[in-house]
Amino acid sequence: MKDKRKLIKYLATGGISFVVEYSLFLIIVYVFSSEAWLGQAISYSLTIVVNFLLLRNWAFDQSKGGKLPGHMAKYGLLIAFNLPMTTLLVFLLTSINIPAFFAKLIVIALTTIWNFIIYDKIVFRENIRRGM
After folding, report:
1. Are the beta carbons of 18 and 108 closer than 8 angstroms?
2. Which of 30, 67, 81, 98 is an S-S bond match for 93, by CB 3.0 to 4.6 Å?
3. CA 38, CA 40: separation in Å to the nearest integer?
4. Where does 27-99 have alpha helices with state H?
5. How do residues 67-114 score in pLDDT, each as one tens digit?
6. Rounded to whole angstroms, how far apart are CA atoms 10 and 55?
7. Measured distance CA(44)–CA(22) in Å, rounded
8. Which residues contact 17 (CB under 8 A, 6 or more apart)?
9. DSSP labels, 5-34
């Protein structure tokens, strides 16, 4: 039951982050006529802080315990991977004539899957006490 609740909170957090990130992406690409890869990089970067706080404090309920520096470091490493990887994927998809708005949706779907696993198993992993 706890894992199901965690997944639901993760998806809700992702929904909020999606609305923020995708809206920014569309504005940057279609209102300001920027390249899709640039819109990806900017929208993703601006959504990072909100996403981290929602994930840590609500979805994975890790706000207590004083592990903020460790969580930030692991999250930062994941961002260091995700930002160039998602930017490259958007670039590749748009270079084969997939519309930017659809390329972004494909990339978000992919990152949703791999991020949940990494957040749950590495970034916000709960310590399991043994012997008690």
Report:
1. yes
2. 98
3. 5
4. 36-54, 68-95
5. 888 889 999 999 999 989 999 999 999 999 999 999 989 998 999 899
6. 7
7. 9
8. 47, 50, 51, 54
9. HHHHHHHHHHHHHHHHHHHHHHIIIIIS--
C-beta of residue 71 within 8 angstroms of C-beta of residue 123: yes
What's this model's pTM, rounded to 2 decimal places? 0.73
At 32, list the tokens: 């300001």
User: What are 90's two structure tokens?
Assistant: 């958007």
**CA-to-CA separations, 113 to 63, 66, 120, in angstroms, rounded:** 23, 27, 11
Stretch 5-31: mean pLDDT? 92
Structure tokens of 37?
A: 């890869």
Q: Which residue has the tokens 């940057």?
A: 28
Q: What is the pLDDT of residues 35-60, one digit of tens each?
A: 999 998 999 889 988 899 899 888 88
Residue 11 phi, psi dihedral angles, 5° rounding:
-65, -40
